[in-house]
């Protein structure tokens, strides 16, 4: 999985970014955001030190996902209070 563009978006957003399921899916690459595809996306983000909201990535490609860096960024501090 190539998360280069996702990582750039998160870093440009000071530790968080709203990213479409379609963009996440294309990073895999995959043609549809089926259950196993969104699970693979979630696992790859976790491996890279990122988390996402909602906790279950939607399967509709037009939906947005908040991806954030876990390592003490302002976004992760705020989101940990909400969890």
Keywords:
alpha+beta; three-stranded antiparallel beta sheet; 83 residues; 4 helices; 18% strand; globular
Would you kindly provide a written description of the structure presented here, covering whatever features stand out?
- The chain has 83 residues and is an alpha+beta fold.
- It is built from four helices and three strands, in the order αβααββα.
- The chain has helices at residues 4-12, 21-26, 35-47, 74-82, and strands spanning 16-20, 50-53, 64-69.
- The longest helix is centred in the middle third of the chain and has 13 residues, at 35-47.
- It is globular.
- The N and C termini lie far apart (28 Å).
- The model has no long low-confidence stretch (mean pLDDT 84).
Give the gist of this structure.
Helices cover 45% and strands 18% of the residues. The protein is α+β, with helices and mostly antiparallel strands and 83 residues long.
As a percent range, the share of helical residues equals 40-55%
Structural class: alpha+beta
* Global shape: globular
Mean pLDDT: 84
**Which sequence of strands runs across the widest sheet?**
1-3-2
Largest sheet: 3 strands, antiparallel
Number of strands: 3
| Number of helices in the DSSP assignment | 4
List low-confidence stretches.
none
Distance between the termini: 28 Å
Strand content: 15-25%
**Rg from alpha-carbon coordinates:** 12 Å
Order of helices and strands: HEHHEEH
């Amino acid at each position: 999985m190539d998360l280069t563009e996702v990582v750039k978006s998160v870093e440009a957003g000071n530790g968080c970014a709203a990213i479409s399921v379609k963009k996440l899916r294309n990073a895999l690459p995959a043609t549809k955001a089926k259950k196993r595809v969104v699970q693979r996306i979630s696992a790859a983000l976790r491996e890279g030190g990122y988390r996402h909201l909602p906790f279950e990535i939607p399967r509709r490609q037009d939906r947005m996902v908040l991806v954030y860096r876990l390592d003490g960024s302002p976004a992760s501090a705020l989101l940990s209070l909400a969890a």
